[in-house]
Amino acid sequence: MGMLGYSPRWRPSAAGPGKDGGDYSRKGSFGFLVLVVLVSNVVSHGVMQVQSRWAQWADKQESWAGGASLYLMDQAANYVRDTRRFEEEVRDIAHRLKIRPEWLMAVMFAESRFDPAVTNARGSGATGLIQFMPFTAEELGVTIEEVAEMDHFEQLDLVYRYLRQVQRQRGSFASLTDLYLGILYPKAVGGDACYALYGCGSTAYKQNSGLDENKDGMVTISDIDQRMKRLFPDAYVLPKP
């Protein structure tokens, strides 16, 4: 009869590992497999991010090494010594203004060919990368003579401050044409194509008659738009970022 009153509280399952024990084993294996998959996905994602950043960095280095660079940088190199820094600052300004860096390069080329000391040949007093007018320079806290003495990087700071000021007053620049108007005639930003900036016979027209694309004696937004499209077709077609 054995020991009187003895009743074991637990016995190994008679079913053996094929039933209850097997379920426990399989559940443990499945949980471990899920954990491995999750860890693998996290690691893979991290590796892909590192690879992507490395590829971007490598592409940038290869681009610089191969001579490929930002739109019109080959023209800027005629006056800019540190082209890499210049490109970086142009891109940074464009990012802050929410415009295309190609647009900014185009308007600087149109106004000064990237010569920071150039002055308007027709006597308006406009000077520098985007042809700051004397009264505009004063609004920015400098004289036009001081602008002429600045290097590219000092003037780029003024370019940003001026364009940001125009944005606050006139709204964002939706196109290359808008950006150029922001420099040339801020009141016209966002205006109709027939909006006239300068009329024949005025001093302003004489100083800017080269902008009259159709030679009808008036400089309109349509003229400016056609000029930007003709001179800078690659930048012109780029949408607002």
Folded structure, characterized:
Helix 3 packs parallel to helix 7 (152-170). The chain is mainly alpha-helical. It has a domain at 73-190: Orthogonal Bundle (Lysozyme), CATH 1.10.530.10. Strands 1-2 form a two-stranded antiparallel ribbon. The chain is built from eleven helices and two strands.
What is the compact description of this entry?
The protein contains eleven helices and two strands; from the N terminus they run ααααααααβαβαα.
List keywords for this structure.
two-stranded antiparallel ribbon, Lysozyme, globular, 241 residues, disordered N terminus, mainly alpha
Gross morphology is globular
Summed up, the helix count is: 11
Structural class: mainly alpha
State the major sheet: 2 strands, antiparallel
Rg from C-alpha positions? 33 Å
What is the distance, rounded to the nearest whole angstrom, between the alpha carbons of the first and last residues?
91 Å
Task: Give, in spatial order, the strands making up the sheet with the most strands.
Answer: 1-2
What is the C-level CATH assignment of the domain at 73-190?
A: Mainly Alpha
What is the string of helix and strand elements?
A: HHHHHHHHEHEHH
Instruction: Indicate the proportion of strand residues.
Output: under 5%
Percent helix, as a range, is 55-70%
Tell me how many strands there are.
2
Assembly form of the protein:
single chain
Task: Please give the CATH architecture of the domain at 73-190.
Answer: Orthogonal Bundle
Mean pLDDT comes to: 83
What is the fold-level CATH name, i.e. the topology of the domain at 73-190? Answer: Lysozyme
Name the poorly predicted regions: 1-20, 52-66
